[in-house]
Amino acid sequence: MKLKIAVLSGDGIGPEVTAEAIKTLDAIAQRFDHKFEYHAAPVGAIAIDEFNDPLPEATLTVCKTTDAVLFGAIGHPKYDNNPDAPVRPEQGLLKLRKELGLFANIRPTTIYAKLADQSPLRPERIAGVDLTIYRELTGGIYFGEKTLSDDKTSASDLCSYSQEEVERIAHMAFKTAQNRRKKLTLVDKANVLETSRLWRRVVTEISKAYPDVALDFLFVDNAAMQLILNPAQFDVMLTENMFGDILSDEASVLGGSIGLAASASVGNKFAMFEPIHGSYPQAAGKGIANPVASILSAAMLLEHFNLLEEANAIKEAVTASIDKEVSTSDIIPGSNYSTADVGNFITRYILADEVTVSGTDNRALGRSTII
Ligand code: IPM
Ligand code: MG
Residues with catalytic annotation? Predict the structure, then answer.
């Protein structure tokens, strides 16, 4: 398969982790005989610095003329602490989601047996956890009208949803549930919010078309608690934009580190793949960032094009790296492996010849090989 991939590595650790994802994709292309072509384009704080625009028109064009977008991270501290900044890096990401119509953000939580001790929860609490969050991504309070009074003493953000916005992501989430454990939990605040009551009505109606999927409802405050108390109860969680933002960060650390959490954002025409983590500016350039979230986002990209064997090859290589403790220090405390070391291990593991499997570990580590 030939794929054109837009690469928007962005700010902070974005470029470092994205470089490892590209290395991994190159290994997949080599092993499975595909051709991946990369088109780099600026986004975020670096694009503001250079073009005074977090999403230059030319970048958007690159995204619209390629098959998929691989995104790194966005954000810089010089904007975080300045509420008066006229333009912010995050606007680039939000505009990109809107322009590409990426209405569904899919955020799976994967637990690695080896990392059970790294989880903030006791091992028995995370046993059996396998959940995925469907977060609506182009509506709700993120995109509603915003106001700030002239004297800057009052402000508002409107949360609104249409039936159609709920329907299209609900169908996706139900279809996914059908291929998983057949359970869908709608998370909302229907005891308070009108938009949540709309979500309940629409999702209940749609559920009739998926009789094999059990639908239940949770208020978001309770859902936040249940994710800690008993996360294994969840299969597919469906929710609106801001609740999904918050809950997916919470869910991502169940496995031990947000550095492992990948995501896909899809619409009817375009698709983008990105780690859940942010730009982690304190770590930028130090080679300590975990590239696994970005590498697993590349695996989700392959899944999107139905390259399932290829995606599995990446996942197996990631699991092997974790099992062998070839990981950054966020998951193996005191580890000396750098961002690039982890990417190199995963790349070599993918390319390792099965016939000489006895030598795989050392070769993958880039250490001496006795075959
Ligand atoms: C995310 C991020 C973004 C969001 C920010 C960077 C705008 O937190 O992708 O979860 O809030 O959607
Ligand atoms: Mg977030």
Answer: 142, 189, 221, 245, 249
